[in-house]
# Entry
Amino acid sequence: MKVYQTNEIKNIALVGGTKSGKTTLAEAMLFEGGVINRRGSVDDKNSVSDYREIELEREASVFSTVMYSEYAGKKINIIDTPGFDDFIGEVVASLKVADTAVMVINAQNGVEVGTEISWRNITKLEKPTVLMINQLDHEKANFEESLRQLRQQFGNKVIPAQYPTNAGLGFDTIVDVLEMKMYKFPKDGGKPEVTDIPEEEKAKAEELQNEIIEAAAESDESLMETFFENGSLTPEELSKGIKLGIATRTMFPVFCASAKHNQGTTTFLEFIANSLPAPNEVKKEKTDEGKELEMNPDNPAMAFIFKTAIEPHLGEISFFKVYDGTLTEAIDLVNSSSDTKERLSQLYAVAGKNRSKLEKVVPGDIAATIKLKESRTNTTLTTAKNQSAKVAPIKFPEPKIRLAVKAKNTADEEKLAGVLKEMNNIDPTLFFEQSKELKQVILSGQGELHLNVAKWMIENISKVEIEFLTPKIPYRETITKNAKATYRHKKQSGGAGQFGEVFIMIEPHYEGKPNQTDYPVRGQDIHELEWGGKLVFNNCIVGGSIDARFMPAILKGVMEKMEEGPLTGSYARDIVVNVYDGKMHPVDSNEVSFKLAGRHAFREAFKNAGPKILEPIYDVEVMVPEEKMGDVMTDLQGRRAIIMGMDSEGNFQKIKAKVPLAEMNKFSTTLSSLTSGRGMYGMKYAEYQQVPADVQDKLLKAYEAEQEEEE
Ligand SMILES: Nc1nc2c(ncn2[C@@H]2O[C@H](COP(=O)(O)OP(=O)(O)O)[C@@H](O)[C@H]2O)c(=O)[nH]1
Ligand SMILES: [Mg+2]
# Structure
């Protein structure tokens, strides 16, 4: 395929609610660009974008799909994204490399849950945005109402560039107030018949044109001056203002289409080709150190991988955007995270399953390659001298739900681990952890749908039958007061005996705690525990009652009990152990004896030291439509949440709370049903805290029962 230069490239991501018509619009754009010669559809399971098995089964997008079209001398890279919030990872990665977001709205429904969510994602990433009101052919289509809702929710920078004159069944005509023309589309779409605006539409068209001219003028001071002087802008000035306005997010123009009937596609493609900012006309991307990437074809190359996929018969395929320099086939690059050398064997422009070879890739373009050794999503490949220079990475959201996963057939366990690792490579929002502590494999992700889709893929693509189980909670144990204990290990059996006796005093540890004064500390080991918190081990022995060489054995015995806490077998943390006295036997004392003595003494002391179970607490942020605030608060209180604050954000309330992980089960389902899907939340580990007494009792009883069962 022809090599397009930076100023001949436009990168868009299609975002918006589910079933608004993103995939259908992409199909029409590919068709009009001649990339495909037959228009498929989601309903007939033959669209370019929704081609994966799971997408055919669900008749909806699950993964983002990278495609391109060629129109009016431009290459338009199109990334179609899934609408469900569970697949937000795909959306944020796509928005990272898109220069403009195209938010698609279903004219039957106006602003939907998915529209609100997309808007929030776009806003967070400060992406230039244009809106497409689609499905104007539907009998329930209502352009005016959709526009009203968009403006009410997202403000007056939402401004029509087009409007339909006959929305509903039989829709075929759009008035364009940028060109001041009327477009009448053939029944099955394509290029419109272009006419002057008829008399009866003139007043409305002129009013809207004034509005958009004024908005365009506001994007730039010199345009504003010209506008005040002349009372208007020339078509060239308008076009410049619109591009600037979009790039700087001072305007969000609205377009019209029926993607299903391919009406409005060619005129939209025309607009994209001529008026959307090119990759070097938007805010410059930066390195992780804040240096701007110049998009200069002669600079050393900086290519950023934003998507990794696995294709049948092809293996791993990596999608990247070039932010600097020029890539050619067979070029050698370095992965700036791992220093690994990677050779780009092939360069492709990709449209779903279709691939077309590229001889080089210039700054701003999006392309794909295969057979990289180990470079995956969120890494930079570079030829720069500074091999650690990285494009600022995508910030993927933290997981929100977790489940334990188990192969139905134990023989499949190893295979499952491999499959999960591969799935994490292609979906950085899907995590798994083989927890030694919980003796479970914990899978976590963005929602129930996300994990269920993962299950479908594991079972149907990788052919491993699995089941989901309730995940265990990583509790911890600690003490709340000082306690002493002594233990004598003595064994006489035939020949050599065993003897070791220790006296210990244990105390709660906290940062900055001074050493106790009853027994002067002569030697101190501070252990940062793998599972968090500390163990401080003090040698306070006077007069050689225990040889220093036995200290490591005592510590070992203590550590064994720290790893399997005396209360519930959970890890213990934040404890000071002072060994202040003991006895040795000249012949029978050995390491084993002191290890056992240390272990038993520690267990004894622990029981008398006000032992407590700790649980992980998460910072949870919930966005709730105002009118549902009460219901959600009640639910949170039932989850032992401590409310830390509330803020209003538009029609939403943002609740900040601290909630025990043990209480977060099914929160996503509950929130969704309480708010009809509009509520959103995120969570992040905060700290460990003591569980309330009644919860501790319950956990102790459950552990006892479990132990009995095992015996
Ligand atoms: N009537 C009508 N239906 C449409 C239009 N665009 C898409 N659809 C239908 O809406 C459904 C969802 O379309 P799809 O492209 O998968 O939406 P996506 O979830 O946003 O990608 C499918 O049944 C499409 O045929 C349109 O312009 N008019
Ligand atoms: Mg779709």
The chain has 16 helices and 36 strands. The chain has five domains: 6-281, 302-382, 406-472, 477-610, 613-694. The first helix runs from residue 22 to 32.
